[in-house]
Write the structure tokens for this entry.
Amino acid sequence: MKTSTAFPIASLVLRASAAPLDISTGRVTLQLNIDLNQDAFNGANAFAGAGADQLFAFSSMHFIEATPDQVVNGTELTGGLAGATGQFNYGINVDANMICYNISLNNFQGEFDSPATTATHIHEAARGASGPPRIAFPNPEPVDGDQAVRNSAGCLKGPFTTGVLVDGVDSGEGFHVSKIEEDPAAFMTDVHSSLALPGAVRGQLA
Ligand SMILES: *[C@@H]1O[C@H](CO)[C@@H](O)[C@H](O)[C@H]1NC(C)=O
Ligand SMILES: *[C@@H]1O[C@H](CO)[C@@H](O)[C@H](O)[C@H]1NC(C)=O
């Protein structure tokens, strides 16, 4: 899923005006006018346009529910890691070739296990198919010592490396996040466990 709207705090115009003091009653009337700048709501550029009051501007955001039933080995469903789920949330800045991530895993079990540098990835693969990792993210770590709840959050910028060689070349080499925005359905995100090597949970970006 892709969203590109944001609440345009910068465009909220607050106007407070006090009416003259009414001596006879000692009351002050306070009138508060809130003007919403409708331009800021206009379409896909609203988010990027809000840049002045935010540290990171995203050209797109992707919120992915990852589940075991989407995992395949080749094209064969494996069932993944039963009971595990993941929320993989991404914000992309195409101009900076940057991707910010906030990944939560529930009920992950086993060890993180992958030939790549980490076991948490975005792969170039259509629904029901397999394909090479393009970005490797830090593996989520237990939150407050709770192994059942894990999280990782941060940002990565290209050039990307995954540690996986395809025809002698790192599968992240030359990758640009614009490819994800051009065709999110061609990408999936997942995490691999020693108990479910083809993937514990997986979700398609669109
Ligand atoms: C994936 O499938 C291949 C056969 O296509 C098999 O050789 C391999 O062991 C499977 N991998 C896992 C981890 O199940
Ligand atoms: C990650 O998302 C969760 C909500 O799913 C939020 O509570 C948490 O603060 C976020 N982490 C960061 C670093 O923004």
Q: What stands out?
A: Residues 60-204 form a domain with the Immunoglobulin-like fold (CATH 2.60.40).
